[in-house]
Input
Amino acid sequence: MHNGGWEALLRHIPTEQQSKYMLVTVSGTEIAISGFLRIEKELVIVKGRLSGSQEQGRIFFVPYSQIDYFGTSQITKDSEFAEVFDSFHFPEPVSAAAPNYAAAPPPSEPEPAPSAKPSSFIGPTPPASTASGIRRIVRSQVLEKFRSMRSNGPPSSSDLPRPPQP
Output
């Protein structure tokens, strides 16, 4: 969620209900909230305690980018939720000038380059591209060589192809 969304959501919660909520950061730190001290554009300053501790009244400066989620562990009736959040609507994200895609012409598909020599691919359909066609040809040649070596007995090092010498 963008910063404006967090800011609007937190401002919408009534002061008397703020102590019902908890905030969990992306690092997994859970903060039981006593109340919001300040709600700024980039961060929220809360008073509370770390969950699992008894130390009350600590102050936390939490950037919105570090909030994983915000919620409550208390049972909340549907009517209580509706009372607080039915009137809330997330603001639209603020973005830079959106590009106008309607004005741009659709991209044309490149025409396939004519092949200088015919493909040696034999099969029901030609390869999708020359690179995949070459790959299929090489693979089939390697398989044929392997099969011929196996049918003629155990292979020796003289049967294996040698790398080209520079």
The longest strand covers residues 30-39.
